[in-house]
Amino acid sequence: MSTVPPIELIVYPDDCDAFGHLNQAAYFRLFERARWEALAHGPGMDTFRAHGVLPVVRKTEAEFFQQAAPGDRLRFELEVEHWGETSFTVRQQARKVGGQGLAAEVRVVLVTIGRDGRPCPVPVEVGRFLGVQSSRRTAASRQLTVRDLVITVDVTGDGPAVLFIHGFPLDRTLWRPVARTLTGWRRIAPDLRGMGLSEAPEEGYSLAEYADDLAALLDAVKVDQAVVCGFSMGGYVAFELLRRHRDRVRALVLANTRASADDADGRASRDAMIARIRRDGPGFLADEMIPRLLAPASLQTEPDVVRQVRAMVSAQQADGLVGALTAMRDRADATALLATVTVPTLVIAGSDDQLIPSAASRAMAEAAPNAHFAMIPGAGHLAPMEQAVNTARVIREFLEALL
Ligand code: MLT
After folding, report:
1. Which atom of ligand 1 is nearest the CA belonging to 235?
2. Which CATH superfamily is domain 7-129 in?
3. Which residues make up the CATH 3.10.129.10 domain(s) of the chain?
4. In angstroms, what is the span from residue 168 Cα to ligand 1's centroid?
5. Exposed e or buried b for every residue in 98-124, given b needs 16+ CB within 10 A?
6. Closest ligand 1 atom to Cα of 166
7. Which of 261, 303, 319, 395 is the one with CA 20 to 30 A from 126?
8. Would you tell me how many other CB atoms lie within 10 Å of the CB of residue 292?
9. Average pLDDT, the chain
10. 141-402 sits in which CATH class?
11. Span from the CA of 167 to the centroid of ligand 1 (angstroms)
């Protein structure tokens, strides 16, 4: 939950255009005013000035849902979606006081720059005021005790539930670029046990444990059924949810994943990686895995994505990594299970995925009775990050067809 006080602003006649409504430029002005007012209730610009830095807008995305007219009172709420080293992303929502639903929503990326005009660290005091508790937690993050373990989970939005399951060696933020666009849905994105900011026990890892954790997490957030979106290892967990908690799965998105189990070579390379992590620690993983996780073109042209993936991989704990490798090594084949999956299913493949051949994904879609296949051009293994817009589009279309 955001710690920033909501701001109410009245729409004045001179905010409106010849049609008598608030046009988009004026809407932007009110969003900006609301941001300023929100800051003025907290540290204000003084904190930025004291550190010799200035926040500047790098990018704005906006969606307008309702008209606003003179005299309407709009209530603006703000929360932090992403907190980076030198930038942060805020989501602002406007609702009519006394009305229903969202009137408009913007997502603004702000970069802090120094006197020389170059990006520099965001003052910690600003983060504290905005409800950010650490550089990797956002205002949407919660920590819940689930089956005696502390699980970190992002829960955003209202509506039917979508559960996002990340892959290896990643965390819940993998899905963030996609999840944040799916307004109208309650998006639940946990860090699996041992990964990201969730607690990492020394032992107790298997796909069954992950699946039972997620079923208990759905209980904790009072969700009976969710559309389950599993990415890669998250897909293996989704299969386990089907085996153990099928009634919780309303529909299925299988992204960059496979149904087959590891063969002997695959199991041997899991064992080799486990031994290396035990011997040397996980420091080598980022350099080793990033060139395989991302498409060659993304490596060249998407430095922000490369940076985010590196941060995710580098922050993992050895026990959680070893646990996940063990769980994947020992997983059962899910090929026969596919024929029993009758819920609507979307299978997503990346055209340049070096880990999961798109033919394997296509075969999964053919094996499940109610499945569609979508190829994301230009995506490597990390389609939800590398090609977030296209991945979000196919998922949104799939979700809308469920309603
Ligand atoms: C993942 O992205 O989750 C992993 O690459 C899956 C795997 O190693 O089988």
Report:
1. 3
2. Hotdog Thioesterase (3.10.129.10)
3. 7-129
4. 5
5. eeeebbbbbbbbbbbbeeeeebbebbe
6. 3
7. 303
8. 11
9. 91
10. alpha beta
11. 6
